[in-house]
Amino acid sequence: MTSRDEQLKILVPHSFRSTLSRRALLQLGAGSAGLTALLAACGSDDKASPSSSSPATSGSTPAGDSILGSFSQVVNKSSGTLAMYTWGDYNDPALVGDLADTDLGITMKVDYYTSNEDLITKLSTANGSSGFDIVVPTGPYVPQMIEKGLLQKFDKSKLPNIVNVDPFYLGQAWDTTNDYSVCKDWGSTGWMWDTTQIDGDIATWTDFMAACTGPASGNCSVLDTGANILGMYCWGNGIDWNTTDPAELDAAEKYLVDEFASNIKAFDSYPSTKIAEGAYALSMAWNGDARQAFVRIADAGGNPDDWKWALGSPETELWMDNYCIPDGAPNPDAAHAWINWLLTPQISIQDLQYHGYNSGMKDMPALIAELAPDLARGDMIFFSDEQVKTMKTQAITEAQDRIADIYNKVKAKAGG
Amino acid sequence: MAQSIVPPPARRRVRAPKFALAGPSMIWYVLFFIVPIAFIVVYSFGAKDSSQRIPVDLSSPTFGNYSKAFSATFFTTFKQTIRIAVLATLLTVVIGFPVAYFLAFKVQEKWRAILLALVIVPSFTSFLIRTLAWRIPLSKNGTLSGWLQDWGILSGPIDILETRTAVQIAIVYNYLGFMILPLFVALDRIEGVLREASKDLGANRLATFMRVTLPLAGPGIAAGVLLTFIPMCGDYVTATVLGGAKGNMIGALIDSQFKGAQNWPLGSAIAVLMIGAVLLVLAVGAILVFGTQWILRRRRRVDISSVGARP
Question: A81 in the Ramachandran plot: left (φ > 0), alpha (ψ -120 to 50) or beta?
Answer without folding.
Answer: beta
